[in-house]
Amino acid sequence: MIVVMKSDATAEQVEHMVNHIVSLGMQPQVLVGTQRTVIAAIGDERQGLSEALEPGEGVEKVMPILAPYKRASSELKSERTVVRARGLEVGGTRVAVIAGPCSVESEDQIVSLARTLKAQGASGLRGGAFKPRTSPYSFQGHKEDGLKMLAAARDATGLAIVTEVMAPEHVPMLARYADVLQIGARNMQNYQLLQAVGDSGKPALLKRGMSATIDEFLLAAEYILDRGNPDVILCERGVRTFEDHTRFTLPLASVPYLQDRSHLPVVVDPSHGTGKAKLVERMSKAAVAAGADGLIVEVHADPEHAMSDGSQTITPAMFEGLMKTCKRVAEAVDRTM
Ligand code: PEP
Ligand code: MN
What we know:
This protein is an alpha/beta fold. The protein has helices spanning 11-23, 49-53, 107-120, 144-157, 171-177, 191-199, 214-225, 254-261, 270-274, 277-289, 316-332; strands at 2-5, 27-32, 37-42, 59-63, 83-85, 88-90, 96-100, 124-126, 160-164, 180-183, 204-207, 232-236, 266-268, 294-298. The strands form 3 sheets. It has an 8-stranded parallel beta barrel, surrounded by 7 helices. A hairpin with a 2-residue loop joins β5 (83-85) and β6. The longest helix is centred in the last third of the chain and has 17 residues, at 316-332. The radius of gyration is 23 Å and the shape is elongated. The structure holds phosphoenolpyruvate and manganese (II) ion. The site of manganese (II) ion has 5 residues, from loops.
């Protein structure tokens, strides 16, 4: 922690801060400059320490040296994390592809779509059984019946199942069916849910909250990691801005930035990120070019009749094209797909 004193700070104020730092269990080292004095506080940078130092008289600002997230940070673990669930591997040299409908609609739908997607090169099957809908009158998902349909699709194809869990009390049930538990954007800061997923023993796919900063996103991941669950996949799915041409704004700079800050793999969701089917392939290419470790894409045999998110959902034929072009981009950035 670095405590920067104001240029007119008095010697008494500096001395007070030195004593305060000692009382907090850290070692102060005073650096007197020509313009101002800076105190380095050496020791364990606990959470809340800057709150204890900032109110000091004569203090201009306090700057932490270490990231506030420990387990998610690349400062503490330099090798990249690879999350594995059945044939799905996220974080290796191969760009992982998770595809499927927004909502699981029927067993026939999900089983036949899963077969197609598997043949086209997907290694994970997405599909919501518990749906977080903006309106209480919209389709809320088939719940446990939907999970059974997903399990049937896994039995038919071997694809790893990625599905959303919305409530801590549902985690044990979801963990019986799913291979990866998705935490949706609206629940990124549901701390009890994060902890319950941390306790589940299942890999997590954590979506970025639509107004969450990168630090908030990584601290949410920290909640899962802190329960002893090392398998967290970060998912950039777009944030809310003033822009209304697309459903959300997809900030792809977060991919390399997250990969610098954290060892966790990063996937991109171009479907929710744009809200527009015709933009999905191009933003998938951009995501792979930016170094994404995977894609999660909404695909439906008949998007016009999808029970949710039809306008951002691509057809299997479009998915085929996406796989083809993204493979070429992957090769250009020394990955496979
Ligand atoms: C979804 O994946 O269908 C979903 C609801 O995503 P998000 O939480 O990113 O809105
Ligand atoms: Mn959706």
